[in-house]
Amino acid sequence: MQDNGSNLVYAGFFVRLAAYLMDMLLVSAVLLIVRLPIWATGLFNPQNILVKDFIFKYSVADILFYVLTATYFVLLTYFTGSTLGKKLFNIKVISTEGRRFTFFEILFRETFGRFLSKIIIYIGYIMAGADRQKRGLHDLLSDTCVVYCHERKVYVNPTVNYK
Prior knowledge:
Blueprint: E1 2-3, E2 9-10, H1 13-44, E3 53-55, E4 58-59, H2 60-80, H3 84-88, E5 91-95, H4 103-119, H5 123-130, H6 137-142, E6 144-148
Antiparallel strand pairs: 1-2, 3-4, 5-6
Helix pairs in contact: 1-2, 2-4
């Protein structure tokens, strides 16, 4: 956690990793409902178009699961600024320019940006641990950063007389 002096507290590498792992656990559990029937059909018919290699070593099912996973990250980040994992840790994605990000920026961040971050031993993600604003490669490419979003709440004790 690092405060930059403008009331923004950047989310560090480990909290972002934990949020991502929570998201992947959730997405994997939901996609298991679709994955099991496809796996079962592949057992009985290995030449099924869904499980047979289609592009390189990927099947239609692999592509479908990637698209569904990317859709989860893109839509939630675009509409709410955070995924369910990020909400759990009170962090959200914001634009570094102080404006609402576009759908294309989030689509780029969550697909191509994440791909580039993973391509060489996940160095694009590890960058978040060394950067002052805790930005990974996908954040740098899309002009976003991840910050804590603490809401100010006032709790009143009903048993105390405040007059």
